[in-house]
Every structure is written in structure tokens, then in C-alpha cells.
Design brief:
Blueprint (H helix, E strand, L loop, with lengths): L7 H19 L5 H9 L18 H14 L1 H18 L6 H11 L4 E4 L15 E6 L2 E12 L6 E10 L8 E12 L5 E3 L13 E12 L3 E6 L14 H22 L6 H25 L2 H7 L12 H27 L5 H11 L7 H11 L5
Parallel strand pairs: 1-4, 2-4
Antiparallel strand pairs: 2-3, 3-7, 4-5, 5-8, 6-7
The structure holds flavin-adenine dinucleotide (FAD).
Length: 383
């Protein structure tokens, strides 16, 4: 059982996940075994309050835990972030009846939940019309449309879905779109829900990600998390786009690649200089991230953990950290490939996989300013 990021059990779990990551990439299928192991080690408890059976780690502990897991297996860790996103939205909502119903089984790993929310944040924003529409019906809402990106939809008992409120909804469409949105914890066994075949992906393919379609799905009020309201994604608690979580995973992936270079460097002096430079950039960035998450932690959490915020300059913004984390992940993984040479280009070598996985951070929950900054860096335009 892992009860702190310093636990030797975290090292043991990570060693097993890293070992299994090779096969997971070669034969991408849902990592049920990896997730079961995480459940047995208590990983799902980290994110949930004790009253629901969790350990309620503070933000700094979570960042350290995520960093270690990401260095071991980015696919499993990414799935855990989507699961956690759903848990946070449920735990942070005002629908008190929903919490005892869903959270204890999520904390123990008995059930799985995920999110389909990006169509209100980073996906389909240019279309100007909702992809998932909700109409008010007596006692609840009727949903029609699709959620374009849902990780682990087929494995999920619950999907936290975001929808836009419309009026006059029928199979032919709707008469008008309101500026209100809602979030629902939708049970996947409701009639009218179909999880599409997972998309073929260039990395994290075993995450089993794809659209979920909804046709006249009637969801009662009891599953309501928030809304209908304007800017529902800004309400309550939950990881936002460009959050520290996504940056932590990118930095963790970079660390795996740098560790590989460090091991090679013990036999190859020419690797010492680039490895040391990347390692020092990693350490600095991770230190800044830990300071930033600790600064944002609740006073109660800080008191419980004994954490005292350090003095000094104010922490960098979430977006600047994410941009630097993306950049480091791309450069460190490609440096590891260069160090691994042709052997690294052969399927099965981790360096090639890390390079593909680093590309994921250019597109996953990536706010437009971060994507723009990464593109400028790639274009050689310095600010
Ligand atoms: C592997 C993976 C797993 C994911 N898992 C989840 C998940 O579990 N839950 C979740 O909520 N989200 C998830 N996401 C979604 C993710 O966070 C982003 O929202 C998503 O990557 C955005 O990509 P998009 O193609 O939908 O973007 P869009 O902005 O919809 O772009 C799609 C296409 O539209 C065109 N386009 C874009 N902008 C414009 C414009 N301004 N004008 C004209 N054309 C334009 C471009 O051709 C672009 O390729 C996942 C994404 C990936 C890749």
C-alpha cells in the first residue's frame, strides 16, 4: 500500500509498470492488469477524501506520485488522470447524494470513471455549435450528440459528460442554443449510449480513446454535477486545461528518457554533457512545479502535511510551466533516441516509444497559447 510518495512500494509499483509498458505499446490493449495493480497499491485513494475511503494527498504529494508513475508508464498514468478528473468533479460538486453513491467504489478501484469534457474546452471550439446537446425534460435532461474524446469509455461505469443546453431538441436537431452548460455523471448502462471503437493512435494507444455517441439518452437530475449555468467548466473543482497535472506527466516522461541517458553515460563519456544539461533543466522545472502546486494547496492540506510555502519569487503560471514541460519532454525523449542510436528506432526500445508519447503533450488538454508557444519554439521564433 502506497501511503506517501516516499514509500518504497511506489518504487515497486513503478518497476512493474515500467516492465509492462513495453508490451502495452507493442500490443495496445486496455491496461486492466496495470490498473488493477494501481488499485491494490492504493493509488486511486490518493485523490479521494478519507470519508469516501481515500487518503486525500496534498497537491505536492500528488505531483510527486504522478511524476514517478509517468516515468514508469505514461499510458496507465494518463488513464488515471482522466479517472481522477471524473472523481474530482464528483467530489467537488454540490450534489451531496452523488458522492456516497460513486466515490467509495472509485476509491477502492471497484469501478472506473472517465471524462468527456474537451468539447467545451480544447476540442471543436471553432465549430460554433455544440456537439453534445442537452434538453430539459421533467426530472432531468435528454442528451443527443457525441463526446469526441473519451478515454476508456468501454471500461467506464460512469462518464462525466459536459453538454450545452438547447431548446426544442428532437432527432431533427434543436431550435436554439442557450449559453448554459451542464456536467453530468452519466451511467454508461443507460439506453442510447454507444462507445465507438477506439481510435488508432500514434502513442498511448492502449488508453482506448474514442468518441461516445448519445441518442435520446435520458439522464435524471440525481446524476447532475453542475449547471445548467454559463461557463460550467470553470465551476467547482477539477483539473482544467493546461493544469499542473498534465505538466507533471510531461516532466515525468522526460525523466524516464534522462534516466536512460544517465545509465548510458556511465559507459559513454560523450553523453555526459547533454544528459547533465537536461537533468538540471528537469530538476529546476520540477522544483518550480512543486513550489507552484504547494502554493495553490489549501491551508488545511498544508497544515496536515506540515508543508510551509518557501519565500522567494512567485511561482510561474500554469501555462508557462506546461509550455516548458512540453518542450523538455520533446527534447529529452529525442535526445534519448539519439543516444540509443539505431537500436532505439527498433520497435520495442523505450526511446522510440517515449518520442511518440512526448508528442501527445502537444495535443492533450493543451490550451491554445501553449500550443502557439510550442509551435513558435519549433519554428525557431524566439520571444
Ligand atoms: C489520446 C487522446 C486522449 C484524450 N482523452 C480525452 C478524454 O478522456 N476526455 C476529454 O475530455 N478529452 C480527451 N482528449 C481531448 C484533448 O484534450 C483535446 O481536446 C483534443 O486533443 C483537441 O483536438 P481536436 O482535434 O479535437 O481539436 P479541434 O480544435 O476540434 O481540431 C480538429 C480539427 O479542426 C480543424 N481546426 C481546428 N481549429 C480550427 C479553426 N480555428 N478554424 C478552422 N479549423 C480548425 C483542424 O483541422 C483540426 O485538425 C484526448 C485527446 C487525445 C489525443
Amino acid at each position: 500500500m502506497i501511503t506517501s510518495p516516499d514509500s518504497p512500494d511506489l518504487d515497486a509499483l513503478c518497476a512493474r509498470l515500467a516492465e509492462m509498458a513495453v508490451e502495452l505499446d507493442r500490443q495496445p490493449r486496455w491496461p486492466a492488469q496495470q490498473l488493477r495493480l494501481c488499485g491494490e497499491y492504493g493509488v486511486f485513494e490518493w485523490f479521494i477524501e478519507p470519508r469516501w475511503g481515500g487518503q486525500d494527498w496534498n497537491e505536492e504529494q500528488l505531483a510527486r506520485g504522478y511524476h514517478a508513475l509517468a516515468a514508469a508508464c505514461i499510458t496507465t498514468t494518463f488513464i488515471i488522470t482522466q479517472r481522477t478528473g471524473a472523481c474530482k468533479r464528483i467530489a467537488g460538486c454540490e450534489n451531496e447524494a452523488l458522492k456516497p453513491r460513486l466515490l467509495p467504489k472509485l476509491a477502492s478501484g471497484e469501478t472506473f470513471a472517465t471524462v468527456g469534457i474537451s468539447h467545451l474546452t480544447t476540442s471543436r471550439q471553432h465549430l460554433g455549435k455544440p456537439v453534445l446537446a442537452a434538453q430539459t425534460i421533467p426530472g432531468g435532461f435528454r442528451l443527443n450528440g457525441m463526446s469526441p474524446w473519451v478515454t476508456g469509455g468501454a471500461a467506464a461505469d460512469t462518464i462525466v459528460l459536459a453538454a450545452t443546453l438547447v431548446t426544442g431538441l428532437s432527432e431533427a436537431g434543436y431550435s436554439s442554443v442557450t449559453d448554459e452548460q451542464l456536467l453530468l455523471a452519466v451511467p454508461t448502462d443507460l439506453p442510447g449510449i454507444s462507445v465507438a471503437e477506439p481510435l488508432p493512435l500514434i502513442g498511448v494507444e492502449a488508453s482506448s480513446t474514442g468518441p461516445v455517441h448519445l441518442r435520446d439518452v435520458e439522464v435524471s437530475d440525481e446524476w447532475l454535477i453542475a449547471g445548467p449555468m454559463r461557463h460550467v467548466m470553470a465551476s467547482g473543482v477539477g483539473a482544467g486545461t493546461g493544469s499542473y497535472e498534465t505538466s507533471t506527466l510531461a516532466i515525468g516522461l522526460a525523466k524516464a528518457a534522462i534516466d536512460f541517458m544517465a545509465d548510458e553515460a556511465t559507459r559513454r563519456a560523450d553523453l555526459e554533457q547533454p544528459m547533465t544539461a537536461l537533468l538540471s533543466e528537469h530538476d529546476q522545472l520540477f522544483e518550480e512545479l512543486l513550489a507552484a502546486v504547494a502554493a495553490g494547496d489549501s491551508p488545511a492540506h498544508r497544515q496536515a502535511s506540515g508543508h510551509r510555502p518557501k519565500g522567494g519569487p512567485s511561482p510561474p503560471s500554469k501555462e508557462s510551466l506546461r509550455q516548458r514541460a512540453n518542450s523538455l519532454a520533446l527534447r529529452a525523449t529525442q535526445a534519448s533516441l539519439a543516444a540509443a542510436k539505431g537500436s532505439g528506432y527498433v520497435v520495442g526500445h523505450p526511446a522510440g516509444r517515449w518520442c511518440r508519447e512526448a508528442l501527445f503533450f502537444l495535443v492533450w488538454s493543451c490550451p491554445q497559447p501553449v500550443a502557439a508557444a510550442n509551435m513558435c519554439e519549433l519554428a525557431g521564433i524566439l520571444d
